[in-house]
Design brief:
The structure is a homodimer of 408-residue chains. Chain A has 408 residues and is of the alpha/beta class. Chain A is built from 14 helices and 16 strands. Chain A binds a DNA duplex (30 and 30 nucleotides) through helix 1 and helix 3.
Chain lengths: 408, 408
DNA sequence: TTAATTTGTTAATTGTTTTAACAAAAAGAA
DNA sequence: TTCTTTTTGTTAAAACAATTAACAAATTAA
């Protein structure tokens, strides 16, 4: 039961029904391809004539193409299969992280083209913009044609204003009130450039992934545990952004208000318990409150090393991971109580140790969730190899073509 | 950018556009009445002919009526004003609380008819059902006509399953897995009966209230502080319910996981810091961890008494309120970080002391919100006299007629 | 009294879904 | 082979709703 906003509604015009049905057809071709017109008519519970009209429109726009004919051993005329034309355009994804920046190119349905490339991130915003500019120009003018580029999606770990392209605060990069998009938009004015927070992008990557399972992804949460903790919340199939594009920051909901200091300035945030840095500090026995300097050896020691040690029999390492797992679960319980999602997806380096910690996570979740049902909310691991951030950046570019039209 | 759910979509039919525009017209008449067809055409940025057709349909259904003519000093034909026919039916609202149950009757646009009546709540579910049955029968058969009743909305402070009508757990009432709706639905099978949690109902009461201010209520949170803490979250004009209708339970997000024990079984929940009981316990210096019994005098002492004492110069009472205010603000900061709403509404007895505590609440919010913008999220007080729970119960019945049709 | 202006309706047009009929294509039965 | 049956996809016609244009009604100002 959604209330129509009397200050901001969308009237239905003569073409609205067609637009809606067109997007439904696109969605169905996307999830069921290769698929025939007759199949679509059955899936949509409508008549084949309607499907013919709508598909013809998509064929004319070259969004959809006809392919081989089916050859099942059944009577009757063989169906003509339809599939999305993935060659129409390409998308560029950019994932900016502290140490390196990653780039991926995909076709118009998000399938990777070539290899992922990466380069060290310039932490000076101006020099970064210059650096990225050159890389993009290479792709847009040498490797591909600029007119074929559907858009560029850029992921930054921090809070940002989507429209203006302003990075309000990206603590790990040290960027504050930096407009990273303006120079790019000026340089490549033919191409759409999108900006998104990494936690939100990861959530997008899941709902827009083409999957074969029957999972209902209309209400999900993605929790990305890394240097910081990023969270993206999807409700009713839509990423929630809030008034300032800052919705979903569960990383800074406290476990204990008097807990360890957090990068955000407050103390006891969930992030201050479960980020990789926090886990490592705990392993080395440093009191985070004191922000004691770490030795060089400690600085080069990563969470992956810790996991390796835990697997190698280092009981202190294992205990450290278990403690993090418990805190992870306690925080997830808060998210579950607040959002009650269908699934929770978890990404980040710690997922590599999931077999070691999943029991602790589950029991912590059950400890603080309000009902038994909530305690069994399915948790799914997203391995790094799936590149959720890059996939989310791609979705920023490619997904709008499949999204539901704004109506009422 | 909403993803169309390929397993659960709604195809647009020939009538979909009309249905959408019809609901927009209803919404606009509701918010702008009395209003002429020409006004509607301007508000909707469409032509008057379209409005005529749609309004004629509403007139035929007797949802809308024509009223007086305008008489501004302008040239041209006088407009015929349209208004919602509020006499078409009536709604019954029931608010079940520990001590008493309240009932209100409204017309079909939620305007109160007669006085609010109340009676002591029978805490035995069967006897309660019987009691409520008799009360409802009186209204439906003696005072009014059953066929005119649009529906009955019942509010229960606890977790519940909307569809089956099951009260899963209402700790203050002591109800667990009680089906309160089944007997009513059986008895009054002509009438729709709706069940809703009190926090969620309060949120509904705000978005569906007919207001004159220009507030954008598409993203709001209602926090109801009483015996427990109920929270309702509205995103994109729609109350979020989650997979098990338990979404929004921010009352059990911890401030400190090792904090005082909470009625839910966990410890350190926000509720355990700010509920009326928690505030009173703190005033009487009881250690909640010990669950010490209170004296008879203490048992009869209410939060209103505490506020009175604080106003009367009792500095310990004032300090107690200030402490609650601080905890209230710290928890609100978590909600703001997580949801980033346009407004936060607060109801409950403590709002009567708002002039005493609002400064502490605000500074605690600023202390833990991630950005300056978030720190200035407007907080609005809803006084008890506005009966948000009963108004929410009414909205359950009357609002669906104005809601956006499900599409795509 | 006439012109100007605004409201609301009606008729015609256009675009879209829906129904019904049909053509095309293939397998199976006679 | 030939005919029947079945399925796919298209086309023509019908039904319906938004849109456009024209017009009638009602009122004020000149």
């Amino acid at each position: 039961m959604r209330k129509i906003n009397p200050k901001n509604f969308t009237l239905a015009t003569r073409g609205t029904s067609r637009e809606i049905n067109r997007q439904i057809i696109l969605t169905l071709i996307r999830t069921h391809q290769p698929v025939s017109r007759a199949d679509l008519a059955r899936l949509m519970e409508t008549n084949r004539a309607n499907v013919t009209f709508l598909v013809n429109e998509l064929l004319e726009e070259d969004l959809v193409r006809e392919g081989a004919q089916g050859n099942e051993k059944v009577r009757g005329r063989k169906p003509t299969f339809l599939y999305l034309n993935s060659q129409k355009s390409y998308a560029i994804a950019v994932d900016v992280r502290v140490s390196r920046t990653y780039m991926m190119i995909t076709d118009s349905i998000g399938k990777q083209i070539g290899d992922i490339i990466s380069f060290p991130t310039e932490l000076d915003p101006n020099r970064f913009a210059h650096q990225l500019n050159i890389r993009l120009r290479n792709i847009l003018e040498k490797d591909f044609r600029m007119s074929d580029c559907q858009g560029i999606g850029i992921i930054v770990p921090g809070m940002l204003d989507q429209k203006s392209g302003l990075v309000i605060n990206a603590p790990t990069l040290g960027w504050k009130n930096v407009n990273i998009l303006a120079p790019l938009r000026k340089e490549f004015d033919e191409v759409d450039v999108y900006l998104e927070n990494s936690g939100k992008a990861c959530a997008l990557s899941q709902i827009w992934a083409t999957r074969t399972d029957n999972a209902d992804l209309s209400d999900i949460v993605f929790v990305s545990v890394s240097d910081g903790v990023g969270v993206g919340v999807v409700i009713n199939g839509e990423l929630i952004r809030g008034r300032h594009n800052t919705a979903g920051e569960f990383g800074h909901v406290p476990l204990s208000i008097d807990g360890p200091p957090c990068s955000c300035g407050a103390s006891g945030c969930w992030e201050a318990y479960i980020s990789n840095l926090s886990t490592l500090s705990r392993y080395f026995g440093k009191d985070q409150r004191q922000r004691q300097p770490r030795t060089l050896e400690e600085q080069n020691f990563t969470i992956e090393d810790l996991i390796m040690r835990a697997r190698g029999g280092d009981s202190k390492a294992l205990t450290t991971l278990h403690t993090t797992a418990r805190y992870l679960g306690l925080g997830l319980a808060s998210i579950i109580n607040a959002v009650d999602p269908n699934y929770i997806y978890i990404g980040g380096e710690i997922t590599e140790a999931w077999d070691l910690i999943n029991h602790e996570v589950s029991s912590a979740i059950k400890e603080r969730t309000l009902t038994k049902d909530l305690g069994t909310t399915p948790i799914r691991i997203v391995p790094a190899i799936e590149h959720p951030r890059l996939r989310g950046a791609v979705a920023l570019v490619t997904a709008p073509a499949f999204a539901a039209p704004k109506v009422a």
